[in-house]
Fold Major facilitator superfamily (MFS) profile domain-containing protein.
Amino acid sequence: MYLRLPKQCARFYTILVALAIHTNSISVGMSQGFSAVLLPQLESNRSSIQVDSEEASWIASLGVISTPGGALFSGMLAETVGRKTTIQITALPFLIGWVMMGLSNDKIWLYIGRFVTGFAIGMASTCYVYLAEISLPSERGMLAALGPVFVSFGVLLVYLFGYMMEWHLSTVVCAATAAFSFFIIYFLPETPPWLASKAKFSRASDTLLLLRGSKEAAEAEMRQILHSVDCKKGLQYKEYLGQSKKPTVWKPFLILVFFFLFQEGSGMYNIVYYATNIFRDIGPVLDSSVESIIVGVVRLVTSIVGTFCIQNFGRRPMAITSSSIMGLSMAIAAFYNYKYGKVELEDRPSPYVPFACLVVNVIASMLGMLQLPWLMIGELFPLSVRGILSGIVSSLGYLFIFAIIKIYPNLMETLSLTGMMTLFSIISLLTVPYVIFFLPETQGKTLMDIEHSFLPKPASKEEADIKRSPLETNVDPVYILKI
């Protein structure tokens, strides 16, 4: 049985738990940013491992190709062994992948190491489900939005390592980060909804009391959990398929899939994975590696600002603001490159314009579009299928990322830099009407309220009472709660 903490101490403890969970997000950022510092070193004449453009694209994209599989695997694992245990296990493929790359002396081991760390990135999507299930509605957005802050921190760290040291040495620090995650997550609690879904009522109650610091708040939340899931038995395979017919399942599924398509189509991940190359192509104002570090710092600072914006201004306003600025900044960069791209850098008027536009684009992405699809995975699905479907949607999201990362060099040859930036601009601007017409607002709502928002509106109070979930309504959480 856990200790009962005062309310303020319980809130502080919840924040510490979120910070510990997000140590895996640091590894995600390191893995995403690693290709941006690895590829320039491999392409230099001093490297013992030489790669051409096709091999370089595989090194970059292999960090994503296995990610959908990791997300699917973690979704199933989260339902069977729990959210916390799944997140702890996630640190292992990160560690193994970094060790493989650190010890490699040819391209094959680099490919394998990137593949393994990509699998771990997919598994890390369970972090958002965990945080959604342990946090209060008023704090859920902030705690989940810390994920991109830590991802940005990981990206910045690996950019700095790549600038200061040889890439083999960078993998040592990355491996140490993964080992620390595995150790610290062991001491965290499992989520109350998952415990209750496995009929572990006493542990669920104790954990709620630890996280909330109030008997009344814990009892009220236990009631909601018991109304959300059948605690006596888990869903079987056929029952999961049956769930897909419910509007509380298929509606959020389609909303999130299209939201991810717009996110990946905006080009934000191309800037992360090909940062140094992109800044070289647009005409570097500074050394392209230094520009990558500047963007890494901007990402980190803006992700912190974005956390507070999402918490205070809602999901929809931030998504509209973020995608609008992204589209406009990329359009300006495309126009500038169209007009002056063939002019020598020293002869261009205001040569810093493309770089400034990309920095603004990164800032705008961190204000909403990067965080929101991942954050809302843990919010929109009902508890009975949240683990499985969060894994499926995450895997699709990562599949889209792999596609755009892999085909980026080919698109550059076909569309040119101007065409690519124009495409990213158009998709970013098309996100605005999508958000206006389809994306629900979830800020400050309980997970049960969000689930009910996808149901047809009842015609009367009597009909509403009939539609209420009968699951475990005969169980009084006052008797379950062990104080």
Notes: Confidence is low (pLDDT under 50) at residues 466-483.
